[in-house]
Design a protein that fits this description.
It is found in: Cytoplasm. Strand 4 (about 80-85), helix 6 (about 90-95) and strand 5 (about 100-105) form a beta-alpha-beta unit. The chain has two domains: about 5-15 and about 65-105 and about 150-230, Rossmann fold; about 25-60 and about 110-145, 2-Layer Sandwich (SIR2/SIRT2 'Small Domain'). Helices cover about 35% and strands about 20% of the residues. With about 230 residues, it is an alpha/beta fold. Bound molecules: adenosine-5-diphosphoribose. Adenosine-5-diphosphoribose binds near residues 13, 19, 173 and 176.
Length: about 230
């Protein structure tokens, strides 16, 4: 059974990572769009670097929850038949043990060099303009996909979505494309679709099975069902 799981901020909420659209839309006094666009970075790089430095530090002190753990358990059972595609920039999936993982919106724990394109693992603050470990230029930015930029590994994701038997969406509002379109794509290619979210999202193509509740409760139960059926 080939499964694609798409995750969003809701899966990390119980770990203490704030979501985007449940919150007031303001973090540290900034509109998300003011710190999450290439234009914002050009206009005020210090503010943008400081914003992501703070997020990187905050995520370093939280832990995976039962939902991340359950998906790692599902990978142990299914191996490469399972692909987890996350919109999250935290590293809680990998810390829980998931390996077959795509970070389509990038990672807080990497930097992106605007001079040479390197994406080094990065745990320190960027606001001080440290040199790139590959080319030495002081042009590192957070390796996070901003509004108006193209997400990572879209071909790989789309191939997996059209080929899967089950498509599950966990903890995402379905407000941002292309991720929001994957349920329609999976459905069109015959997959069974399931949503595990605090509240049912208003997806254009409805899910076959929409379960409302906390990811920490819903995901372990769903994983048990999948493992029992496979
Ligand atoms: N369990 C399950 N779902 C939850 C929980 C929880 N404990 N808490 C919140 N949710 C749900 C909310 O109901 C909401 O539908 O998680 C969803 C979070 O939605 P958003 O805040 O919009 O986050 P997400 O869908 O990941 O955002 C997508 O938008 O700003 C960009 O690039 C950013 O990757 C992000 C993208």
């Amino acid at each position: 059974m080939r499964i694609v799981v798409l995750t969003g901020a809701g899966i990390s909420a119980e770990s203490g990572v704030p979501t985007f659209r449940d919150a007031d839309g303001l973090w540290e006094g900034h509109l998300i769009e003011d710190v999450a666009t290439p234009e914002a970075f050009e206009r005020d790089p210090d503010t943008v670097q400081a914003f992501y430095d703070a997020r990187r530090r905050a995520v370093a002190s939280v832990h995976p929850n039962a939902a991340h753990d359950a998906l790692a358990r599902l990978e142990l059972a299914l191996g490469e038949q399972l692909l987890v595609v996350t919109q999250n920039v935290d590293d809680l999936h990998e810390r829980a043990g998931t390996r077959n993982l795509v970070h389509m919106h990038g990672e807080l724990r990497r930097a992106l060099c605007l001079a040479c394109g390197a994406r080094p693992v990065w745990d320190a603050d960027l606001v001080w303009r440290p040199p790139c470990p590959v080319c030495g230029e002081r042009m590192l930015r957070p390796d996070v996909v901003w509004f108006g930029e193209v997400p990572y590994e879209l071909d790989r994701i789309e191939q997996a979505v059209v080929a899967c038997d089950v498509f599950a969406s966990i903890g995402t509002s379905g407000a941002v494309y292309p991720a929001a379109g994957y349920v329609a794509l999976a459905s069109a290619f015959g997959a069974r679709t399931v949503e595990l979210n605090l509240v049912a999202s208003d997806a254009v193509v409805p899910f076959d099975d929409a379960r409302a509740g906390r990811a920490g409760d819903l995901v372990p139960a769903w994983v048990d069902e999948i493992i029992a059926a496979s």
